[in-house]
Amino acid sequence: MKRKLIAAIGVAAMTATVAACGSGDDGGSGGSSDSITVWLMDGSAPEPWVEELSAAFEAEHDVEVNVEIQQWDGIQDRVITALSEDGTVDVLEIGNTHTVGYANTGGLADLADFADEPWNAPMLESTRVDDTLYAVPWYGANRVVIYDKGIWEEAGAEVPTTRDEWITALETIQENTDAEPIYLPGQSYYVMGGFVADAGGTFAVEEGDGWAGSLATPEGQAGMEFYAELQAFSNAPTDIDEAEPQQSTDVVPNGNVASWIGLGWEAAGAIAAIEEQGGEADFGYFPVPGETADQLGHVFLGGSNLAVSGRAGNSELANEWLRMATSQEWAQKFVDANNGGVVPNRTDVTASPEPGSFAEAMVASADVGYLPPLTTGWANVETLPNPIKELMTQALNGDDYQSAAEEADAEITERINRE
Amino acid sequence: MTVHIEEAPAPPPPVRGAGGQDGDRRPPRRRVPSGLVPYLLLAPAVIAILAVLGYALARNVLISFQEFGRKQLISRTTEWTGIENYRAVLENERFWDSVFRTFVFMAVNVVLIMVLGTLLGLLLNALGKKMRLVLAISLVAAWAMPVIATTTVFRWLFDTQFGVANWLMRTLGFEGYDQHNWFGSGFSTLAIVTVLIVWTSVPFVAINLYAGLTTVSGEIWEAARMDGASAARIFWSILLPIMRPFFMITTFLEIIWVFKAFAQIYAMNGGGPNRESETLPVMAYVEGMGQNQYGMAAAISVLTLVILLVAMSFYFRLILKQEKENS
Predict the structure, then answer these.
(1) Nearest chain B Cα distance for residue A414, angstroms
(2) What is the ipTM of this complex?
């Protein structure tokens, strides 16, 4: 009967496997002296600009530039892994709401040499910790409402300048066409944050030494209520966000969406996808309306910064690349390559959007942008499961807002004060 | 993982003293090699386990006593905090919710798996050749399906907008299944995971039981029937005692497998909505990999291990007791 004992030991061994929960490490390709690795995010840089820049840099320094395009989904894990390894990546693009958090971990190189360039002042806010520069601004972007001109014309809806007109337009579309008046998934929390900001609220406020979630407030509730009013016009489920399925390429091209709220690269992606199907996109753009005609709605000031890894294999070359990519010449080329669809990172770069373009609508509301709290802990709040998203789903499904928001606030407070 | 099933009744022990008369004959079993050889043969397996599992386990225990987040990971610092992580976990209401949920989930799954698996095993034994083959193939197919593939298919089956489940409910005439969200609550999510896990685990039990049953001598069945025993009586009074070791080992293997089920639950809904379908392994993952609190996650997984070991100690005792009786 020794075999039973062996079986028992086997069981014990398998019990032990429960506790072993590991993570895979990706091999890096940077680190050698004749090449540098640059991580850019999906949808950030137009390909021709990247190719031209790489060619110019390679010609000047006789090194190879490996530009690797990263997906936003799961990016935090990959950046953390990359920053903890030697020579994985030299230069990397980091979302503006996450930069301070990474700077605080000590994983980003000090970029004091770049401090004197004429950076766009509001953007600079997200790149510094205690006056030390850990990243440089690259571009800014914010969302606008993208609408299908054909459907709006057919319905007889007019481009709104206030919230009330917006709702009226959506009602008109619902009555007169069989299109979905607006595609708005339940968890697009940066859109909701704009409505909260319209009411004078924010995701979190400073309280004593730390921060505290502030969604269980009349302002938070007002923002969520307007979001719910819009969301009622959409067939989208309440428990998904705009990225999965990707609204621009997976939802909008498949048809009958009269309008949606998106970024410049999303609009471009949707147009490309529609053309690939043999159709023709006829998009118009307008800024998110505010409560009155003289004030536009608040929009999240998205954007990215460029940073150098503290463990870059070749930090000298990394700095050189960064200097070139963000120089006046190449920053201007970047803005031009985006057809003016981004907010420039430097004051000596100008964007001249064409009339009727995405960029025109975007630049209009850039002044009424809002940012989430730029604290080291904000990135913790945005990790999944994101308490703001959970709150939105609960509210849209008819749960009591106040109690759900208090729960979300508690979670935000716990996470935002963690380093 | 292979399992030894000792379904056959033990052969009658050789009569003592009888061997002495045939002293010159070859012994019935070859002699076990002595000296270093057995240890050398065991070494690769032991070394592999120590290197892969032992190291990870030891490291995991160490991390559980550290403040270990992305800051420590990136700056490569070590901050010992003693039992701070354990205190935080044990004071966390969410942890106890997870413990309760894990045990209920495990109990429901194991009972369903064992009952359905036993019934299907008996059915396999009772079927004719052709139908047995058909059933065996469909069981093996379910058993062989990759976890993420089956989970993805289940996700689609229960999709809110285009799922077959909603269509079926509508077709059957139920109200309110136009856009029913099957993943709208933790209970409903775990119920779907239960269907998935039971479906993929039943074949293991059924096929092993069938394999065991084939070694039960036909005479025993016949004798029981002659005495007028009903099918239920045959099962409870004859099969169950003969197959007792099989049922014990299988039940406990299933307990462990369900207890540590991670991929199915995580891939189904990420532990959501609102963390309502988190079992202990999923919670450890969400806290650790999702939120970069590696120290906290390590503490959760060590506690999970301790809980499982305590639960399993019952089994060890049972086995040791039997060992004593048999020696």
Answers:
(1) 12
(2) 0.78
B58 touches chain A (CB under 8 A): no
Neighbours of B21 (CB within 10 A): 8
Q: Do B319 and A107 touch (CB under 8 A)?
A: no
User: Is the separation of the CB atoms in B197 and B111 below 8 Å?
Assistant: no
Phi, psi of A180, deg, nearest 5: -80, 115
Which H helix or E strand runs over A343? strand A343-344
Domains A4-140+302-360 and A144-300+366-416 in one fold: yes
Tell me: the pLDDT tens digits for B298-315? Answer: 999 999 999 999 988 887
Best mutation site among B1, B70, B256 for testing chain A: the one with the most A CBs within 10 Å? B70
Q: Do B53 and A12 touch (CB under 8 A)?
A: no
CA triplet A152, A158, A163: central angle to 5 degrees? Answer: 115
pLDDT for A356 beyond 90 = no
Q: How far apart are the first and last CA of chain B?
A: 27
The shortest C-alpha distance from A256 to chain B (Å) reads 16
Q: A144-300+366-416 — its CATH code?
A: 3.40.190.10
Q: Which residue from B308, B319, B327 is facing A8, i.e. has the nearest CB?
A: B319
- CATH number (3.40.50.300, 3.40.190.10, 3.50.30.30, 1.10.10.10) of A4-140+302-360 reads 3.40.190.10
Q: What is the mean pLDDT of residues A306-334?
A: 93
> How confident is residue B317, by pLDDT bands cut at 50, 70 and 90?
confident
The percent of residues above 70 in pLDDT, for chain A, comes to 92
Q: Give chain B's mean pLDDT.
A: 87
User: What is the CA B22 to chain-centroid distance, rounded?
Assistant: 47
Q: With 0-12 CB in 10 A as exposed, 13-18 as middle and 19+ as buried, what is B162?
A: exposed
Q: What is the pTM of this model?
A: 0.81
pLDDT at position B3 = 43
Torsion of CA B121, B123, B125, B128, to 10 degrees: -140
Return the domain boundaries, chain A: 4-140+302-360, 144-300+366-416
Helices A218-231 and A163-176, axial angle in degrees (round to 10): 20
